[in-house]
Amino acid sequence: MNELPYVLAAESELPMPMEYVGWSALALSLLVTIAWLAYFYR
Fold first, then answer.
1. What angle do CA 23, 32, 40 make, to 5 degrees?
2. DSSP one-letter string for 25-41
3. Membrane: is it a keyword of this entry (predicted)?
4. Half-sphere exposure (CA, 13 Å, Cβ side) for 28?
């Protein structure tokens, strides 16, 4: 039963890096889309 606080603490630290991963993936996909559109419509 003593493991529960450590598990909860570990889980509470997880969303922050995943949030950065999500935002970086979004930014990368936007850059790829803009580059593709610039190449396609030139």
1. 155
2. HHHHHHHHHHHHHHHHT
3. yes
4. 6
Residue 25 is encoded by which pair of tokens?
């993936």
Half-sphere exposure of 35 (CA within 13 A, CB side): 6
Backbone angles phi, psi at 2, to 5 degrees: -70, -10
- pLDDT tens track for 1-42: 556 555 555 555 555 677 788 999 999 999 999 999 999 998
What values do phi and psi take at 14, rounded to 5?
-70, -40
Q: How far is CA 35 from the centre of its chain?
A: 21
Compute and round to an integer the Cα radius of gyration of the chain: 19
Give the pair of three-digit tokens for residue 36.
């593709």
